[in-house]
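Summary: Need help interpreting a holo structure output

Steps to reproduce:
1. Submit the protein chain below together with the SMILES for nicotinamide-adenine-dinucleotide.
2. Request a joint structure prediction with the ligand placed.
3. Inspect the structure token block that comes back.

Expected: a single structure record containing both the chain and the bound molecule.
Actual: see attached output.

Input attached:
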Amino acid sequence: MAVKRVAVITGGASGIGEATARRLAADGCAVAILDINRASAEAVAKSIGGHFAPCDVADAEAVDAAACQVERELGPADVLVTSAGLIPNSEAIMDMDMGAHARMWEVNYNGTLHACRAFGRQMIERKRGAIVTLGSINSRLPLPLPAYNPGKAAIERLTQLLAVELGRHGIRVNSVGPTYVMTPPLRAKVDSGQRDLGKIMGVHALQHLPEPADVAEAIAFLASDAAKAITGVLLPVDAGWLAAVSYRTYAGGVPWTE
Ligand SMILES: NC(=O)c1ccc[n+]([C@@H]2O[C@H](COP(=O)([O-])OP(=O)(O)OC[C@H]3O[C@@H](n4cnc5c(N)ncnc54)[C@H](O)[C@@H]3O)[C@@H](O)[C@H]2O)c1
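--- attached output ---
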């Protein structure tokens, strides 16, 4: 019988992380969820026969302790997906709360770094592994989210640095870059009129936003041997946003896209 791959998902209690935990469990992986939300993480872990390690990814020592727990319970990690993150509303730099700004960097950027270090060490020992970080369309272009946007650009650069540093150990490090994903919070904002889906779709090439399962599919590919020659890339899962956003706004919009 084939040995199960051990897959660790930070932020696996909700959204993209949850969809990824379910996708990798369906692939036959032994899944461990690291999340600050104990109740949801336990429920997801239970439903897929996975494990749960409570942890605030902003706390490096807590991540190291969770990595030891996962190794004890399941063995060393073969796959790491860093989906734990905070998602803000848009705001002006001059008005932003500096406490919230610092916390976002601690969770989104430092949390990614902490997990890559803790589980990367387990992978180095065995000379194999695949890491997938959560970038965003924010990794590529300026958007009015002053802590989140540069943090996602930094995560893309961190992914490239790690890809080179860990490549000689047989470890691949890639990123996915989703556009707006149709998660329950976005659906609620659209339904309550806080977000205009027509305007959002107007700067995409496709007419449908990705679902969490679509992002999980891209992550599962990058984590699999099918991607064995791919490292250091950010794979947009963006319904064509990166291609469309400047095209659609050229000279205020071109008539044939109406
Ligand atoms: N949803 C989108 O539209 C979208 C688009 C692009 C990128 N992303 C990225 O995808 C990732 C997941 O987003 P999502 O939409 O699934 O969000 P989500 O809120 O549904 O899930 C995030 C998970 O992270 C956990 N978490 C938050 N802070 C934590 C901490 N300090 N320690 C441990 N766990 C923590 C939460 O409890 C939650 O389970 C994030 O990195 C986000 O930036 C999301």
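--- end attachment ---

Reviewer comment: The CA atoms of residues 58 and 110 lie 6 Å apart. Residues 98-126 form the longest helix (29 residues).
Status: needs-info
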